[in-house]
Amino acid sequence: MIDASGMRWNVQVAGNGPDLLLVHGTGSSLDTWRGLMPSLSRDFRVVAIDLPGHGASEALPRGRTSITAMADALARCLGKLAAAPTVAVGHSAGAALVLRMTLDGLLDPQHIVAINPALRPYGGRRAHLFAPLARTLAAIPVLPWLIARRAADPRAIDRMIRGTGSVLAEDGIAMYQRLFADEEHVRSTLDMMAGWDLGTLVDELGPLAPRIHLVVGTADTAVPPWQARALESRYPAMHRTSLRGAGHLAHEERPDEVAVLVRAVALDGVPQ
Question: What percent of the chain lies above the pLDDT cut of 90?
Fold first, then answer.
């Protein structure tokens, strides 16, 4: 645990070598990387961090859950660790966070691996309806308690995961069950969704395109694969690897495969 930006962060650091940053998505924790860290730490100093209010990290004050506020806070945490990642890996909203930090000069990785990146507003084409709804839900005090109660049933968690196109083993289901049984984690997840505003992020990616490698699960129902294909079409300098049959949590379903891919991108630029 370290103190930065007025809060305590849960951090896991493993290995030696160039810094490699792992950033999880909304509603998850650094444990999402449990299958990748042992492999990647053989070549890198791997830094994984629980985002504010997620896992064992303290929450940022309400009103500071925008992508820019979270990017600034995460940069201060990395500063305390004296970490200068040459490779940054982000999953879902974590990929958007890595890209925002790089565009704002808070990170300068040579390579960015974006796993099923969530670069469009929550709710997709219905974002204009979803955003107000998320803010309303986040303001209901009893809702985190109700969700935490529901998380006591592993079948409910399994259905939630399968709803993203992923199928996890028992350890993965148990991890998300622990997370969503924690009212503070649930509250922070809702707050993040309510405050998340990607703005013009997708329109700004041109200069970063040669550094970005998209990893896309073809069975992802949370961030449909067509979004990555559209990005690649718009920015041909990007690279893309598709994982056939993998869902939104592709890195948890196929950690060995994703670790090999990340290492190849980091060491060679493009996987063979």
Answer: 66
Average pLDDT (115-120) is: 92
Cα diameter, the chain: 50
Domains and CATH numbers, the chain: 2-122+198-268 (3.40.50.1820)
The closest of 129, 261, 140, 154 to 190, measured between CA atoms, is 140
Element of type H or E holding 149: helix 143-150
SS3 of 86-132:
CEEEEECHHHHHHHHHHHCCCCCCCEEEEECCCCCCCCHHHHHHHHH
- Give the integer Cα–Cα distance in Å for 196 and 64: 10
Backbone angles phi, psi at 268, to 5 degrees: -120, -10
115 burial type by CB count under 10 A (0-12 exposed, 13-18 middle, 19+ buried) = buried
Name the strands in the sheet holding 19-23, side by side, starting at the edge strand that comes first in the sequence.
11-14, 45-49, 19-23, 87-91, 111-115, 212-217, 239-243
Q: Give pLDDT, residue 267.
A: 82
Q: What would the two tokens of residue 176 be?
A: 């998300």
Angle at which helix 143-150 crosses helix 170-180, to 10 degrees, equals 150
Distance CA 253, CA 256 (A): 9
DSSP labels for 3-60? EETTEEE-EEEE-SSSEEEEE--TT--GGGGTTTHHHHTTTSEEEEEPPTTSTTSPPP
Which two three-digit tokens encode residue 109? 């990785």
